[in-house]
Design brief:
Number of helices: 19
Largest sheet: none
Number of strands: 0
CATH topology of the largest domain: Cytochrome Bc1 Complex, Chain D, domain 2
CATH architecture of the largest domain: Orthogonal Bundle
Shape: elongated
Radius of gyration: 25 Å
Helix content: 40-55%
Order of helices and strands: HHHHHHHHHHHHHHHHHHH
């Protein structure tokens, strides 16, 4: 028999042996036992090679690890959605290591085994054959970067630093609806001003706008993995309580003329007629007359949040209440990045 035939027959025999082992059912798939070798090593190697391959071409945001606002956003989501399995350095959940196979990694120790793009793919898409889920809202591929930024910061955080990112001290005697205390203040603050500029200002926003946003998040009509967990099981009464609480606070509003002579003010007042983009002020002000209750107040809002909202409108990934369709003319004709920055800076300046 020729050498070539021997190799072919040997390969065929190996394939038949593997097939026989798989079909026999002798490989345990229970979570109560570790994956047997060599399957555990094969799966681990395949997993890491997949992360490396599929992360090729993923572009990391500028200054990711220096973006304190992004780190704070990621910390809030980690506390709600990740800590239960992965823990933190001073509080490891022992049940996870005993009940899950493979056990969830201790991320402060292993996060730097992967580059930022690989971590992004893991957070965004999850990991098959494990308990690691994909990002809660598949439309918002931008949001997982916040968790990546946090994971990069986690190894350097002590307990006090971590708590500063996720907790808001509540003064004695502070009055607020229980839903606000439990679901809202950790990101938007007791004062509704959006902690450290990382989250949008809710104080002073129209009550109808806030309620419609909560309803849209809960009904999966508005897209955000950050907002999916806090709103998933809210009752209508809880939504109305939260909306009324924040609407009654000071915050958003037109307090000055802002940067009235810049490009942002011009686009807000006049739009861009040559590109069929209407003026922002026709719905959002500033104007002498009161606008409809379902048009959000933009004056004084964080510029970063406004830029992000304009971008996701244009990408078609924002969703929202039925009123969000009024943004279609802007979405279809696209503000350029410099124009988005200018308009957002102008509206932020109006609140000063």
């Amino acid at each position: 028999m020729s050498r070539r035939k021997k190799i072919l027959l040997g390969g065929l025999g190996l394939l038949l042996l593997v097939a026989a082992v798989i079909t026999s059912g002798v490989i345990p798939i229970y979570a109560s036992v570790d994956h047997p070798e060599p399957f555990a090593s094969i799966l681990d190697f395949a997993k890491k090679r997949s992360f490396a391959t599929y992360s090729l071409g993923v572009e990391e945001p500028d200054r990711l690890e220096e973006d304190d606002a992004l780190v704070m956003r990621g910390a809030g989501h980690y506390e709600q959605g990740c800590r239960f399995c992965h823990g933190v350095p001073w509080d490891r959940p022992p049940w996870a290591r005993d009940a899950l196979s493979p056990p969830p990694p201790e991320l402060d120790r292993v996060a730097f085994e992967y580059d930022a793009a690989e971590l992004y793919m893991i957070v965004n898409h999850g990991v098959v054959f494990t308990a690691m889920p994909a990002w809660p809202d598949r439309a918002r591929n931008d949001e997982p970067w916040a968790v990546v930024a946090f994971l990069r910061a986690l190894p350097e955080l002590d307990q006090e630093g971590y708590r500063a990112l996720i907790e808001v001290p509540v003064p004695a005697g502070a009055e607020m609806p229980e839903v606000v205390r439990a679901r809202c203040i950790h990101c938007h603050g007791i004062d509704g001003l959006g902690r450290a500029g990382a989250f949008p200002i809710l104080g002073g926003q129209k009550e109808d706008v806030l309620f419609a946003a909560l309803r849209a998040y809960a009904d999966n009509e508005r897209h955000s993995g950050f907002m999916e967990l806090p709103t998933a099981d809210l009752s209508e009464a809880q939504m109305r309580d939260a909306a009324a609480y924040y609407a009654a606070l000071p915050g958003l509003g037109h307090r000055g003329r802002g940067d009235a002579d810049g490009d942002g003010a011009r686009i807000a007042r006049e739009g861009l007629p040559d590109r069929l983009i209407p003026p922002c002020a026709s719905c959002h002000g500033p104007a002498e007359h009161e606008h409809a209750p379902n048009y959000p107040v933009l004056a004084g809002q964080h510029a970063r949040y406004l830029r992000e909202q304009l971008r996701v409108f244009e990408e078609g990934t924002r969703g929202g209440s039925p009123a969000a369709a009024l943004m279609d003319p802007v979405s279809h004709h696209e503000l350029r990045p410099a124009e988005r920055r200018a308009v957002a800076a102008y509206y932020e300046s109006l609140g000063r």
